[in-house]
Amino acid sequence: MQLINKVLLYLLAIGVAGYAVYVYGFLPLGSLVHPEMRANFEVQPIGIYSHIFASAVALTLGPFQFSTMIRQRYTKLHRWVGRAYLAIGVLVGGLSGLYMAFFAYGGIIPKVGFATLAVIWLYTGLKAYIAIRRGNIGEHRKWMIRNFSLTFAAVMLRIYLPLSMIAGIEFTLAYAVIAWICWVPNLVLAEWRINIRNNHSFNTEVQEQRAG
Ligand code: HEM
């Protein structure tokens, strides 16, 4: 079951990142979005392109950072991938996402939803970085789980949008709701996972890593 979840996570994350890179790298800007969104993107090409390509780095690299095998056998690789994840993906993707939130489609509710997501994404990334600089592996992991659950908002958004269309929900309403539900439940689930796995398994591995 765990293996299936992991494979699904990799496939969805890399699938959405690949989709974004393909659509925004090879098709005219905003080809597949609402005409009003396209008009916004055309006015903010640097904002949207930097957001998409930087965030795609986070979505692609993120899942590999949770591999215990990579962390233990290739620690240097884990560190470099982590730096790229945080510096390119979260920092550039988050700042440009925050900027684009001011122009988001559909009014104040989605704007605030995306802006809040961007701020918490940046905050959890910073906390994860500070924790590891201080050598606190347990805290670093917890903040990274929270952070990646927010990166995964990009996947949930692209699952909910077609579902809302199939359900016949009007786009503006759906978009306003999805701007929130693409990340709030992820964060709740991340918190639940952190608590469940909690002390025992976290501490055992941290002790093992310190001993090794
Ligand atoms: C987690 C923090 C993120 C925030 C705060 C955020 C914010 C935003 C905002 C505000 C927009 C513009 C929406 C509009 O104009 O209505 C946008 C669009 C977009 N974002 Fe993000 N985003 C995040 C993560 C990601 C990730 C990880 C990806 C992965 C590639 C991504 C890919 C895209 C794409 C492709 C678009 C263009 C719209 C589309 O084609 O669906 N975003 N994002």
Automatic annotation (TrEMBL):
This is DUF2306 domain-containing protein. Keywords: Membrane, Transmembrane, Transmembrane helix. It holds the Pfam family DUF2306. The chain crosses the membrane at residues 7-26, 46-64, 84-106, 112-132, 144-161, 173-192. It comes from Kangiella sediminilitoris. InterPro entries: DUF2306_membrane (IPR018750).
